[in-house]
Amino acid sequence: MVRLNRRLSSLPMMTGTSHGLFGDYDASIAAMTTAVREAQRWVHVEIYIMAWDHTTDAFFGAMVDAVRRGVKVRLLYDHLGSRKYPGFGQMNKRMTTAGIEWYQMMPIHPLKGRWRRPDLRNHRKLLVVDGEVGFMGSQNMIDASYLARKNIKIGRKWHDLNIKLSGQIVSSLDAVFALDWYTETGQRLPEEIIPPENYSVGEQAMQLLPSGPGYLTIPNLRLFTALVYRSQHRLSLTSPYFVPDESLLEAITTASYRGVAVELFVSELADQFVVQHAQSSYYEELLNAGVRIYLYPRPTVLHAKFFTVDDVAGVIGSSNMDYRSFGLDYEISLMGTDPSFVADLQRIADEYRAACRELTAEEWTRRPRAKRYVDNVMRLLSALQ
Q1: Do 41 and 68 meet the contact criterion of CB atoms below 8 Å apart?
Q2: Of the four listed, 2, 156, 252, 280, which is most buried by Cβ atoms within 10 Å?
Q3: 70 in Cβ contact with 39 (< 8 Å)
C-alpha cells in the first residue's frame, strides 16, 4: 500500500505523532485557534468552506492577531463552496483589511476571464502552523448548522472528525498547501515546505495521499479498494455520502462474503436529497452480502470520513466514498499503520455504533414501492453528484 501511494502521489511514508482526534465540533475549532495563537512564523489554511460567523470568530481573530505579530498568514478556500454562505463578501473585506493573504481556489469569474468546469472543486481541509503542527479531516470552518435557517429550526448540525499532527508528516501537509497555493497564485513557497530543524521525528508511520482531477490514476479510490481487499477480519467504514463505484462496491461486498465483519456508518437522513436516495439504492445489495449498516440519528449529519482495516491500517481525511470525491474533487487522505492510530479510529466507530440504530434487511424490504423507485432513479444520477 505504501508503494502504491508513493507511485500515485509521489509522497513517501513518514513519521508523525497523532495528538488526538476531535469529534467535538467546537473543541476542534478551539484547538486550531490555539495553534494559530501560538504561531511564530507562518499559518497556512486550506479549507473548502470558510465563513466568519459567531462560531469561527475566535479562529479568524487568532489569524488577525498573528498578522499583527508579524506572522505570515496565507489562506485558501473554495470559491463555489464558500460563496453561498452569509457574510461572504464581508469576510473577504475583513481579511484583506487585516493583512491576511487569501485566494479563492478554482474561482469562477466570467467577467474577469476566469472560467472552468464548475463541478470540479477543491474539497481539502488542512491547517499548518510553522511547519510543526497540522490539522486535517472532514471539518469546514463554519458554524455546525451551516448557517441555514432550516437547519437551525430543526436542530440539524454537522458532526465531523479532525486529527492533530506533529512530526515529519506535517511537511507533507505543507507540500500539498504549497502546490495548491502555487496553482492559484503562481507564487512558490520553497522555504515553507522545508521541514524545520527542530521538529520531532514522530512515533507513528503515516502517509498523506492527495487526490483529485489532476491525478488521472484516482489515488484515493485505488487505495480504498486495495485496503478493503486486504481486510481479513474486520472492516469499519464511515462516509457521509456513500455512492461507490462498481470496483469499491464489489470489494466491500466480496469482503463480507468471504467472512470479514463489515460495518458501514451513514446518516439516517443526509442533507442532500439526491445523495440520500442514491446512497439508499445500495443498501439492499450491502445487506444481502451481510454488511451491517448503522444509521446515525437525524437530524445530525454524520460528516466524518474514515475507515479501519483489521488492526493494521486506518484512513482519515476529506474524501467521501463517492464518485465526486474520486474524480471531481481535490481531497487529502491520511493512512496510518501504527496500532494506536488504528485503535483511536476504532474507538470513534465504537461511539458511533452506540449512538446509531442498525438497519435490518427485514426493515429495508418493507420500504414503500415509491421510495424504491426514487432511490433507483437517483442512482442513475449518482455519477453526476
Answers
A1: no
A2: 252
A3: no
**CA 279 to CA 302: how far, in whole Å?**
14
Mean pLDDT of the chain: 93
Task: Report which listed range, 192-206, 248-262, 274-288, is most confident.
Answer: 248-262
Contact 19, 35 (CB under 8 A): no
Which of 143, 31, 20 lies closest to 86, judged by CA? Answer: 143
CA distances (Å), origin 34, targets 38, 58, 61, 95, 214:
6, 9, 11, 19, 34
> Average of pLDDT values for 75-87?
96
pLDDT top residue among 106 and 385: 106
What pLDDT, on the 0 to 100 scale, is given for residue 195? Answer: 61
Phi and psi torsions of 282, nearest 5°: -95, -10
Q: What is the CA radius of gyration of the chain?
A: 20
Predicted confidence at residue 192, as pLDDT, reads: 63
CA nearest neighbour of 94 among 127, 57, 140: 57
Residue with cell 491500517: 313
pTM for the model stands at: 0.93
